[in-house]
Amino acid sequence: MPFQFDSFRLVYIVNTPNESASAQVETPNRMEQPPGYGPPPAGPPAPAAVLDPNNPPWGMIAGILTWFGSVLLLFVMSFLFLVPYLFVYKGKTEELLTDKTAIFLQILSTIPAHLLTLVIVWAVVTHFGKRPFWRTLGLTWSERVGVWTSIGLAVGLLAIGLVISQLIGGNKPTAIDQIINSSAASRYTLALIAALTAPLVEELVYRGVLYSALQKTLNMFWAIIGVSILFTLVHLLQYYNNPGVIIAISVLSLSLTLVRAFTGRLLPCVVIHFIFNGLQSLWIILYPYFEHTGTGG
Predict the structure, then answer these.
(1) With contact defined as beta carbons under 8 Å apart, do 272 and 154 qualify?
(2) Alpha-carbon distance 241 to 165, whole Å?
(3) Which of 13, 86, 110, 277 gives a 20 to 30 Å CA spacing to 252?
(4) CB atoms < 10 A from the CB of 171, how many?
(5) What dihedral do alpha carbons 261, 262, 264, 268 form, nearest 10°?
(6) Each residue's pLDDT expressed in tens, for the chain with a length of 297 residues
């Protein structure tokens, strides 16, 4: 009973008188298999996709629709909050713009509008939870602009805005001035929104979703111009009769967008905007004790 050994298995060949020499019964040894036998091992897992805030997974249409939705929500929520009050309002229609309750309701409606905007941003950025939120938007620090640089830029931009609004001011009170003068409830609510929700929501929409999409589709130059203009235009309704404040907002918008462009990160913009608005919110709260100068972003 001869044995044969090949590179794959041990074969036991049995020849009987009644069988031809070519008839062979093979009994493979499955207990011990030499190296390399069987299917090849699985390779290393594919590397995860690199998240680049300047090359987002959404396009320009999604960016523009996100911006449009954020603006539309402000009007829709204001309308929904005012409609119930109109049924009990006894004054003249033209006096509604100066009614304390109506003004307070309009300010209060900004909170749900901002919350719904955050939901839209989350859906676009994460594709309904399939991508990480913070890293996709670039909400990290940059080597160029850190914490102290962001604080310094915020204070500097606020000082520049105050100087501009003083040199090129308006004689008529702005919509923000009317809100502050209407009631303490409106003043405190406005300060809360300006300090907490407005900076985060505006940066996520403008320098986050919109800027990233415009830079990806167009280029950095047109993304800077487009975002800066749209940010300023949205604030025109609040300060249309005060050119100094409008210029100050334009400077703020351009500066924030430039920081986003040259750092490639969104977190410095968020921090700058938070500090900028936070200092103004403090001034709004202390307004009854000091003369109001009226700039905002």
Answers:
(1) yes
(2) 12
(3) 110
(4) 6
(5) -90
(6) 444 444 444 444 444 444 444 444 444 454 555 555 455 555 544 344 578 899 999 999 999 999 999 999 999 999 999 999 988 887 777 777 789 999 999 999 999 999 999 999 999 999 999 999 999 999 999 988 999 999 999 999 999 999 998 888 766 778 888 898 899 999 999 999 999 999 999 999 999 999 999 999 999 999 999 999 999 999 998 888 889 999 999 999 999 999 999 999 999 999 999 999 999 999 999 877 775 444 445
The CA-based angle 228-80-173, given to 5 degrees, is 50
Largest alpha-carbon pair distance within the chain?
Answer: 121
What is the DSSP-derived secondary structure letter of residue 209?
I
Single-letter amino acid code for the residue at 113: A
Residue entry with tokens 């911006």: 67
Q: Which residue in 10, 4, 2, 3 sits closest to 33, CA to CA?
A: 10
Structure tokens at 259: 């920081």
Of 223, 222, 256, 253, residue with least CA distance to 235: 253
Cα separations in angstroms, 290 against 143, 190, 208? 39, 17, 36
CB atoms within 10 A of CB 24: 13
Give the CA count within 13 Å in the CB-facing half-sphere of 221. Answer: 0
Q: Can you tell me the distance from the alpha carbon of 232 to that of 296, in angstroms, rounded to the nearest whole number? A: 11
Residue type, 277: N
The residues near 186 (Cβ < 8 Å, ≥ 6 apart) are 100, 103, 104, 107, 179, 180
Token code pair at residue 244: 């100094």
Question: Closest Cα partner for 117 from 79, 71, 81, 75?
Answer: 71
